[in-house]
Amino acid sequence: MQHETYDVVVIGAGPVGENVADRVVRGGLTAAVVERELVGGECSYWACMPTKALLRSATALRAARQVPGAREAVTGDLDAAAVLRRRDAFASNWSDGGQVAWLDSAGIALHRGHGRISSERVVEVTGDDGAVVSLTARHAVVVATGSSALLPDVTGLREAAPWTSREAAAASKVPGRLAIIGGGVVAAEMATAFAGLGARVTVLARDGVLPQAEPFAGERVTRALRDAGVAVLAGAEAASVHRDGDGTVRVTLTDGGRVDADELLVAIGRRPNTDDIGLDTVGLKAGAWLTVDDTLRVADSDGWLYAAGDVNRRVLLTHQGKYQARAVGDVIVARAKGEPVDDERWGRHVATADERAVPQVVFTDPEVASVGLTAAAAQAAGLRTRVVDYDLGAVAGAGLHADGYQGHARMVVDEDRQVIVGVTLVGPDVAELLHAATIAVVGEVPLDRLWHAVPAYPTVSEVWLRLLEAYGR
Ligand SMILES: Cc1cc2nc3c(=O)[nH]c(=O)nc-3n(C[C@H](O)[C@H](O)[C@H](O)COP(=O)(O)OP(=O)(O)OC[C@H]3O[C@@H](n4cnc5c(N)ncnc54)[C@H](O)[C@@H]3O)c2cc1C
Ligand SMILES: NC(=O)c1ccc[n+]([C@@H]2O[C@H](COP(=O)([O-])OP(=O)(O)OC[C@H]3O[C@@H](n4cnc5c(N)ncnc54)[C@H](O)[C@@H]3O)[C@@H](O)[C@H]2O)c1
């Protein structure tokens, strides 16, 4: 068996693993990443990038149709084939050549194959040809193996060959009828995308649409999906699934109803990619999420094992995983060099924002952009809050942006500290408004000072002033 030694070995070269390795190399250590599939991970080829490419064209078309003058110039329908071609380009045609070249330029070694921890600080990599290379880490092993789609225990489901987000993101044609189990982020975005591409979509939303978000967000997205022709069946749950000889998937519901489709997408959440990475060899449970401290070090390990990104279940988002990667890369370097560790709240070596300041955009139409706590979550956390709502469509900039602009904004104020702890914006193109809210929440900017942050006129951002006015001074 071939043996190699590095300062740090990272299992998984998704966005998080790549960034951990980059950070430790920038800090003067050596690093290897192990990847069994494509360098770039889920995000690049089957998640963030291709799905947003599937969504973007229909959104642009809707935007043009909402502005007289532009509307008249739109004379045709969406070209689904062109959208799929553009999606292919955003997925780099499922080739990781560009990312491999970047690893090379960053001085990071790549080992292709399946990585398994075999003992303390040792990772064995089994290549496609069965050859095994043993990698020893002088300082740390970082698990960044991500997550996979979860399938519910529904009779006949697996035999019916359902789509997960992977097959949907990489679809080579648009099914005539698409049924979706789930009502979360993936279900809402995919329903929007495939309805825009011309499919007849049915959403079996057992717990409603976007149940984790502010209730008005789910309500507005549900309304928009229905306006777009999507059948949203709130409370519907699949009891059994069968795929007929002609390819039709028949979903029988627990209330006896039936939904027929050409494809069935399951989008009910994720499970960690830890089944077969050797956790049992170091006293941890195979198949479990990896619990970490704020410096991303795995609890119950002897200090050499870290986990970042989806696999630690803190936040299942690329940008937040990359934020963790910066913290974990830097803390490994600090510990290796015997330098002080800055693990105070908001310190350099901790991922404090994961707790209460996570930004997310759901790219439905309207978009849902949120950061921090919802009103319900703030209350559950025991904060004394005041909730301020404003009609986004009443802002001058919104009216200019699109005729008939409809949207809603909410800020949740911690009354004791006079700071904003949560913001949710729903409306066309609100994604780019979110970072101002993130800065206000992370910076814990006092409301008194926010009055001096004057939004430019006439932008949609003027909603900030309206929210402050509604709160009062
Ligand atoms: C449909 C969909 C859309 C999404 N859209 C967004 C979005 O718009 N914005 C956003 O922020 N987030 C989005 N996400 C979430 C985002 O994709 C994940 O949070 C992100 O990919 C996590 O990065 P990661 O590096 O932790 O894991 P991954 O991207 O899953 O990468 C893990 C890598 O590890 C490799 N690996 C696993 N096990 C092993 C092993 N034993 N040996 C070697 N290699 C291994 C895998 O092959 C993979 O390349 C979306 C998710 C889905 C499903
Ligand atoms: N734009 C983005 O930021 C983006 C886009 C897509 C995915 N993601 C990330 O990917 C992750 C996975 O997304 P997801 O939509 O699969 O998960 P999710 O957790 O967002 O939603 C899953 C939904 O499925 C429902 N559900 C759970 N079990 C069920 C069952 N047995 N039957 C029917 N319904 C069931 C839940 O009520 C929930 O609403 C999310 O955590 C999200 O952060 C992010």
TrEMBL record:
Where, in this chain's numbering, is FAD bound?
52, 115, 145-147, 310
One Pfam family cited in the UniProt record for this chain: Pyr_redox_dim
Q: Give one GO biological process term.
A: 2-oxoglutarate metabolic process
Q: What is this protein called?
A: Oxidoreductase
Q: Name all FAD/NAD(P)-binding domain ranges.
A: 6-322
For this protein, the record's InterPro entries field holds: Class-I_Pyr_Nuc-Dis_Oxidored (IPR050151), FAD/NAD-bd_sf (IPR036188), FAD/NAD-binding_dom (IPR023753), FAD/NAD-linked_Rdtase_dimer_sf (IPR016156), Pyr_nuc-diS_OxRdtase (IPR001100), Pyr_nucl-diS_OxRdtase_dimer (IPR004099)
List where this protein forms a coiled coil. Answer: none
Q: Which family does it belong to?
A: Belongs to the class-I pyridine nucleotide-disulfide oxidoreductase family.
GO MF annotation list: dihydrolipoyl dehydrogenase (NADH) activity; flavin adenine dinucleotide binding
According to the record, how does the cofactor bind?
Answer: Binds 1 FAD per subunit.
Where would I find the Pyridine nucleotide-disulphide oxidoreductase dimerisation domain in this sequence?
Answer: 358-464
Cysteine pairs bridged by disulfides in the record: 43-48
